[in-house]
Amino acid sequence: MEAAKFIQKYYRKRKGTDSLKWDALQERYDNADLTPLWVADMDFAAPDSVQADLIERMTHGVFGYSLTPADYFSTYQEWQSRHEQTIFQAEWLHFTTGVVQGIHDLIACFTNVGDQIIIQPPVYYPFFDVVNNQQRQLITSELVETEAGYQMDLEHFERQLIENEIKLFILCSPHNPVGRVWTETELKAILSLCQKYDVLVISDEIHSDLILPGHTFISALTIATELDFLDHLIVCNAPSKTFNLASLLNAHIWLPDQNLRKRYEKWEELYRQTGISVVGQTAARAAYRTGDEWLADLLSVIEGNYQLLTQRLTKQIPEIEISELQGTYLAWLDLRAWLPSLDMKRFIQDEAGLAIDYGEWFSPETKGFIRINLATSPEIIETAIRNLIKLDHKIKGGNQYVSDSDRIGTNRQS
Ligand SMILES: Cc1ncc(COP(=O)(O)O)c(C=O)c1O
């Protein structure tokens, strides 16, 4: 199916459907009329098989305590074999309601109050919260922006491991918000450091199916197998990003090591006794069984929206720098050379009418960046582009936007 046909078939108007992205604009941004390009879900309906299996299950009408379908794991492993070739084993799998909940629980289980946990900002901001809210010590090693895009700073990371006696590393792979799909070399280097300093790794691979042409996702599981480091690795992933199922509350925690598994199972017995979501697992199994073509079409829509954004903005507002999108559906834009001040709310919300994720949510170092969600119709991306171009004309047309106190750098006035 072509991208246009996919959009015609699966795009849905979500306003008025209790959608967080569309219906919480007043509450979150103080303006219900903004164009929503923030929270990472999609404006597309799930694959047909998901809807069909859910209708069949709903029609049965009984929603008592349930078991995970017997073919859930095999269906998932077959999906893996067709896509990323990662080898999982059924006994490694534990379910949780969401990846963030899973990471929160893993921190509670495997670390103590005051323990040092390292993350790589700019990064998905709940990583900060799951550490800080549980009174663990947050240590950071910022990604660095280079000519070749964002890179891990391995020297700095190693120094942080040594100086802070890090217990746990939360890896974001692929990386939200910078859109990197880490290479085998990068993953080997970072995991080898964790191995050298005895650091437990949680690899958040929720975006692993959302890979753009020319890039290959490699799971930390594959690398840790090669390094003989599976006894220090836990992987979290889910069908929720891939197939837009976040509200169905079904995510995976993979614990390959028997000792880690036992410790986690004991912790679960004490603190988490929720059963599985029959709705979430029915939907996930259907998606993994037949969602291949749907995903391929979705990726062409995302690629198309990314091209639209980069081509139009590069031409019209060359001061905006857009990171290469290798994976995820989240574009990362550096507006610092364009805007006359870093009063982002004033420019992006009040003037351009966009609800986006602000750079400083991901790192104090990335104020002046924004993240735009591309998993929507090209018309909505067009609206965002048009509004930014209109704002550009306004900025460049008059100097009411540039007061001396506003200036953010000598070379930043247009
Ligand atoms: C890296 C990453 N992890 C986790 C999540 C959220 O996962 P969940 O809804 O399963 O908690 C997101 C959502 O955007 C994400 O980008």
TrEMBL record:
Class in the EC hierarchy, top level: lyase
Lyase keyword on record: yes
EC assignment: 4.4.1.13
Alphabetical keyword list: Lyase, Pyridoxal phosphate
Residue span, Aminotransferase class I/classII large domain: 70-387
Keyword 4Fe-4S in record: no
Molecular function GO labels: cysteine-S-conjugate beta-lyase activity; pyridoxal phosphate binding
Cofactor section: pyridoxal 5'-phosphate
Recorded family membership: Belongs to the class-II pyridoxal-phosphate-dependent aminotransferase family. MalY/PatB cystathionine beta-lyase subfamily.
UniProt-recorded name of the protein: cysteine-S-conjugate beta-lyase
